[in-house]
Amino acid sequence: MKFFLDTANIDQIKEARDLGVLDGVTTNPSLMAKEGITGKDNIRKHYEEICKIVDGDVSAEVIATEYEEMVEEGEYLAEIADNIVVKIPMIKDGVKAIRHLSDNGIKINCTLVFSAGQAILCAKAGASYVSPFIGRIDDINWNGMQLIHDIAEIYAVQGFETEILAASIRSSLHIVESARNGADVVTCPLDAILGMLKHPLTDIGLEKFLADHKNAQK
Ligand code: E4P
Q1: Measured between alpha carbons, how far is 92 from 120 in angstroms, rounded to an integer?
Q2: Which residues line ligand 1 at a C-beta cut-off of 6 Å?
Q3: How many whole angstroms separate alpha carbon 113 and alpha carbon 163?
Q4: Would you say 4 and 25 are in contact if contact means Cβ atoms under 8 Å apart?
Q5: Is there a smaller number of Cβ atoms within 10 Å at the N or the C end of the chain?
Q6: What does the alpha-carbon distance between residue 32 and residue 30 come to, in Å, rounded to a whole number?
């Protein structure tokens, strides 16, 4: 399973890269706004910077919501760097744009997916990634992880090649459960990845090893 970082924050991207577990990055308009990145030129420069740091796919989301504009913006984003993946929302014009762009060799991440039906449409349209939003489903008291399980089952039965990118990850447990349920990729905040390091018995065990070693030197 690949680890993507769900952020536009350069320091966090470098930290995950230096940890040696980073396979890619996803951004969205909210994450870009959070970093204060505004204006066409700054947005382009920011994507260029991320793409140089990351040896893997970097999702850049279109703002347009109509077919022609989505295609135009998708083509613009795709030529920023070889590792850009264009992120398109799961709406009717989006499905048309996914078909057109993927037919023209541009990798697509279909975002804002909340049902198995939407995931089937993503795969049919030729998206490279489908992004089901686990945390936001849990927020409304439905079962986000069940959706990952259902999509994995359907894609396996049908032989769809679209990769399942578990998104809206809120915790380390979400990462573990996404792995168990068949996600190909998780995109997560840095804290959720670092949280996987933690176990009290690791800390206690290390403390004892170091104390025993120190005592033996006396
Ligand atoms: C997916 O690519 C989205 O950027 C992201 O995972 C959304 O997560 P959120 O629900 O925490 O905003």
Answers
A1: 13
A2: 6, 26, 28, 111, 131, 133, 135-136, 167-168, 187
A3: 13
A4: yes
A5: C
A6: 5
- Confidence (pTM): 0.96
Token digits of residue 82: 């070889």
DSSP for the chain, please give it.
-EEEEE---HHHHHHHHHHT---EEE--HHHHHHTT--SHHHHHHHHHHHHHH-SSEEEEE----SHHHHHHHHHHHHTT-TTEEEEEESSHHHHHHHHHHHHTT--EEEEEE-SHHHHHHHHHHT-SEEEEBHHHHHHTTS-HHHHHHHHHHHHHHHT---EEEEBS--SHHHHHHHHHTT-SEEEE-HHHHHHTT--HHHHHHHHHHHHHHHHHT-
pLDDT digits (tens, 9 = 90+) for 182-218: 999 999 999 999 999 999 999 999 999 999 999 999 8
CA 104 / ligand 1 centre spacing (Å): 27
Write down how long the chain is. Answer: 218
ipTM associated with this complex: 0.97
Give CA angle at 13 (102, 17), nearest 5°: 95
Q: Give all domains of the chain, ordered by start, each with its CATH number.
A: 2-216 (3.20.20.70)
